Automatic annotation (TrEMBL):
This protein's name: MoaB/Mog domain-containing protein
Composition skew (Polar residues), residue ranges: 246-257
Gene3D superfamilies: MoaB/Mog-like domain, MoeA, C-terminal, domain IV, Molybdopterin biosynthesis moea protein, domain 2, Molybdopterin biosynthesis moea protein, domain 3
Organism: Neurospora tetrasperma (strain FGSC 2508 / ATCC MYA-4615 / P0657)
MoaB/Mog domain mapped to chain residues: 13-169, 472-622
GO MF annotation terms: ATP binding; metal ion binding; molybdopterin adenylyltransferase activity; molybdopterin molybdotransferase activity
Organism lineage string: Eukaryota, Fungi, Dikarya, Ascomycota, Pezizomycotina
Sequence ranges of Basic residues compositional bias: 202-216
Gene Ontology annotations for the cellular component aspect, listed alphabetically: cytosol
Swiss-Prot/TrEMBL cofactor(s): Mg(2+)
Length: 714
């Protein structure tokens, strides 16, 4: 990339500041994480050394002085002894023992507040707790020094935020000719650093999710909902009331339910991710597909092959007639006109042809569609091209009245023109050759029947497929009653809408579903229900209990009781903001540690169904090998004006139909309030609407995620 400016790799040193890691280096993971970040920069960096010191000002300073005194280069080149960059990790918080910034800043000859700003700005996009880090940056002798937070994730994010700028800073600090470095202006520098300048950044709204999100890398698409101003990480509401003594990445972010409602968070502490970021978390943390052997029958519908499949046999396995008629031996001149004796019969029944005499020129054999040709036969004449000339009566056991059966004796062939060899004959393997690839790894078996037909035709009875996850569906809430409970509702009761809906949706996508019932809003009950569920299923889908109420227990139960990791707990979208995705470590039946997935969807029925399609489905697809995962996406034209949400991209439930001339037009299903289950009625698509102050006009084009088949206008 910038090989013109950095012919030799720059040298970096890592200082881990942690009293715990100083006692037991095995507890440290920041070193590996940071080395990876350097490694990703295409050989620009060489990590020269890493050291661990306790949270102790003197020890921190001693090591930094040692590294920064190794060379005082000012000769214009990158002196090979110079450590170009020192990154420290740890000790940047507010705890009494945190003193890295103080230790470092006392040593700096030059301050670099711009780098500090860059790191903080990037982390604040992830969490307001970035404010709890107090980084410093600057130069001592020829070495740039920056202090990173202690959590490996935070340290990585901070370093990634500035790493592209660091070669330039380090070259200058090490004494490179500044005028030469700056020749060509900022644009050239940006190009060399592989960064974009301000203003040109303009991320579009995150409509580009759905397909292909699987390989999104982290870091580049933050703020994928650019242009939607007001959501975000609490820059409107402060966090002053929140008493936390740790950084969120070190501990559960959820409420401790035992502290009661007055101690809960008043704003969600989970960073708000864009939809594409959320999808990339799902892609990253969904367990890899497992391979199982499956019988070839209708249970295979929807499965994805984990192997290439070769034809075990030829189709057809023998030379077969395509028509009902007469097998013949075509003479050299191709003239088949005349009257011929019928010497034998071949039916499409097993063994029929086995003892057939060899057919000779001048003889013909009656044959049915699909039956084997007698040996020696070269073609088949259709029965329509013949007339019966004479018959015989033969006594057979079939003849019930004892009169015997009339058999054909002679038949006249009327073929006016030349008959060619091979006419009306399917040669061995002419449909499928033995050993031929009939289906590839990754192919999905459809319900249309083509794939099962192929497997059946060539005698493949079992195939390796990706195991489809078993899904459990659980409703939560003290107010929820079974949808079919007889009698009127009492005040406050709500019929369970989500469970029957999600069970149906997941089954329709081809997954085995277990009905997990309704869990009450009690921490113990919920924990026990989830533990039970995780024993039976691979993916648990819950609804309700992820809002900000004191009875919203899903997140604390997953984090605190089950030891799970919440990968996201808030998404910038409408509906579905509190959608939560977590993985929980569990021992499987063989005692192996595996990871199981929990999707905690919002309780409002429209939100639950939208987020099922948007988030759960891609995860289920990925686990079962379906690629690309998630709903298919097509461009559609709006059939009328659509008003937009000001701050969040919206997944508008709509009916998309195709007109006679092939245009796809979308109309709304009506009111889009997240509790309005009717907004899903008839909907076959989710329109990916951007956010904005003005309505989108009739005729505008948007992307639609197709949940069901297209309607026809015709
Ligand atoms: P919650 O997040 O638990 O506060 O739920 C949000 C809203 O969705 C509340 O009005 C709940 O009553 C409603 N809700 C939760 N679960 C269901 C369900 N299974 N069926 C219908 N409504 C539900
Ligand atoms: Mg609830």
């Amino acid at each position: 990339m910038s090989s013109s400016t950095t012919p030799v790799a720059l040298k970096a040193a890592i200082l881990i500041v942690s009293t715990t890691a100083a006692q037991d280096p095995a507890t440290d993971s920041a070193d590996v994480t940071l080395r990876q970040v350097f490694d990703e920069q295409q050989a620009q960096w060489e990590v020269h050394e890493s050291k661990i010191v306790p949270d102790d000002v003197v020890q921190i300073q001693k090591q930094i002085i040692h590294w920064t005194n190794q060379a005082t280069a000012a000769n214009g080149d990158n002196n090979t002894n110079t450590i170009n960059l020192i990154v420290t990790t740890g000790g940047t918080g507010f705890a009494v023992s945190d003193q890295t910034p103080e230790a470092v800043s006392a040593l700096l000859h030059k301050n670099a507040p711009g780098l500090v700003h860059g790191m903080l700005a990037a982390s604040l996009q992830v969490t307001p707790f970035a404010m709890m880090s107090r980084p410093v940056a600057g130069v001592r002798n020829g070495t740039v020094i920056i202090t990173l937070p202690g959590s490996p994730k935070g340290a990585k994010e901070n370093l990634q935020a500035v790493i592209k700028m660091l070669p330039h800073a380090c070259m200058q600090a090490a004494g490179a000719n500044s005028r030469a470095l700056h020749k060509g202006g900022v644009k050239k520098l940006e190009q060399e650093a592989g960064v974009e300048g301000g203003g040109g950044r303009g991320h579009g709204h995150g409509q580009g999710h759905g397909h292909g999100h699987k390989h999104h890398d982290h870091g580049e698409h933050r703020g994928g909902e650019g242009g939607c101003g007001a959501h975000g990480h609490g820059h409107k509401h402060g966090h002053a009331g929140l008493v936390r003594h740790t950084t969120p990445s070190e501990n559960p972010k959820s409420n401790d339910p035992s502290l009661g409602p007055s101690r809960r968070h008043r704003e969600s502490p989970y960073p708000m991710l864009s939809v594409s970021e959320a999808l990339s978390q799902i892609a990253q943390h969904t367990p890899i597909p497992q391979i199982v052997t499956s019988k070839v029958d209708s249970s295979l519908i929807g499965a994805v092959l984990a192997q290439d499949v070769l034809a075990r046999e030829n189709v057809p396995a023998f030379r077969a007639s395509i028509v009902d008629g007469y097998a013949v031996v075509v003479p050299q001149d191709g003239n088949m006109r005349g009257v011929f004796p019928v010497v034998s019969v071949s039916h499409a029944a097993p063994g029929d042809g086995e003892n057939m005499p060899t057919l000779k020129e001048g003889e013909i054999a009656r044959i049915t569609t699909g039956a084997p040709l007698p040996p020696g036969a070269t073609s088949v004449i259709m029965v329509e091209d013949t007339v019966l000339v004479s018959t015989t009566t033969s006594k057979t056991e079939d003849a019930e009245d004892g009169k015997g059966v009339e058999e054909e004796k002679e038949v006249e062939i009327l073929a006016a023109d030349k008959v060619r060899e091979g006419e009306n004959v399917r040669e061995v393997g002419s449909d499928i050759k033995q050993g031929q690839l009939i289906l590839g790894k990754g192919d999905q078996v459809s319900a249309v029947g083509g794939e099962i037909g192929l497997l059946a035709a060539v005698g493949v009875g079992e195939v390796q497929v990706y195991r489809r996850p078993v899904v459990g569906v659980l409703s939560t809430g003290d107010e929820i009653v079974d949808h079919d409970r007889p009698g009127d509702l009492r005040l406050g009761e709500v019929r369970d809408t989500n469970r029957p809906t999600l069970i149906s949706a997941a089954r329709d996508w081809g997954y085995e579903v277990i009905d997990l019932g309704v869990a009450r809003d009690k921490a113990g009950t919920l924990e026990e229900t989830l533990r039970q569920a995780l024993r039976q299923v691979d993916v648990v889908i819950t609804t309700g209990g992820v809002s900000m109420g004191e009875l919203d227990l899903l997140k604390p139960t997953i984090e605190r009781s089950l030891g799970g990791t919440i990968h996201f707990g808030r998404v910038a979208m409408k509906p579905g903001k509190p959608t939560t995705f977590a993985t929980v470590p569990v021992k499987d039946n063989d005692g192996e540690r595996v990871s199981k997935v929990i999707f905690s969807l919002p309780g409002n029925p429209a939100s639950a169904l939208v987020t099922f399609h948007l988030f759960v489905l891609p995860s289920l697809h990925q686990m079962s090998g379906v690629s690309p995962p998630g709903l298919p996406k097509v461009p559609v034209t709006l059939g009328h004006d659509f008003s937009l949400d000001r701050s969040r991209p919206e997944y508008h439930r709509a009916i998309v139909s195709v007109s006679r001339d092939g245009v796809l037009t979308a109309v709304s299903t009506g009111g889009q309030r997240s509790s309005r289950v009717g907004s899903m009625k008839g909907a076959n698509a989710l329109l990916c609407m951007p956010c904005g102050p003005e309505p989108l006009r009739k005729g505008a084009k948007v992307e639609a995620l197709l949940m069901g088949g297209l309607r026809s206008d015709v």
